[in-house]
Amino acid sequence: MERFIFAEVDSLGLAAAADAAEHIRAAIGKRGQANIILATGTSQLKTLDALVAAQEIDWSKVTMFHLDEYIGLADTHKASFRKYLREQFVQRVPKLAAAHFVSGDAADPAAECRRLGALISALTIDVALVGIGENGHLAFNDPPADFQTLEPYIIVDLDDRCRRQQLGEGWFARFEDVPSRAISMGIRQILKSRHIVVSVPDQRKAEAVRNTLEGPISPNCPASILRTHPSCRMYLDEPAASMLSNPKGCNQS
Length: 253
What we know:
The chain is of the alpha/beta class. The chain has helices spanning 9-31, 45-52, 81-88, 109-121, 160-168, 187-191, 206-214; strands spanning 3-6, 34-38, 62-66, 68-70, 98-100, 127-130, 153-157, 181-185, 195-200, 232-236. The longest helix is centred in the first third of the chain and has 23 residues, at 9-31.
């Protein structure tokens, strides 16, 4: 990991989006196209708002991949990450070169994993914009995560803490309504990205942030593996950084 960066809550999304936008513009300038991964959830709203507003990006040269989706959930459900990305990003920028969504309600989830895997394996991702969960998950890779699989997309079981987070964020009315399985991009596929930009606001993420940056690199805190990536920056606000030994940020290696 390159470093983590402390930002005030109102500027966290601006800083993370500016970082990502720089990588997107550089990829387009060098190769005439850029490939990106986008995450969802409340932690990404300000980052996506700022990315949409970024200047001098030719979105017609950008291909987007989607991190994860609940199995069995229609894209009309308010918790659908496809719905989220369409509303928060895709419909707000000029037409993308392509947008590859995870169809969680596909009749055959394993076949959907293979379909997406074939698409993303043909490309190099220039920048992944991600968050981390309250349980330290990366995408929907809950602890203990599979650090070994090379499959780009996998079927995962969601642990209760992850499901309670989704309930607490208001996406579902009852815990029983939160799906227990999802399709997720695998850890190794995320790490293949040239650059990773991580947005993590809020006090409820403080323990996960501490474990990610100061604990052992372990499947029990999946996001800790980000420390092995040579070009990863994590943007934190004060509450999210509050449990770190140096909450104002420092170089990490």
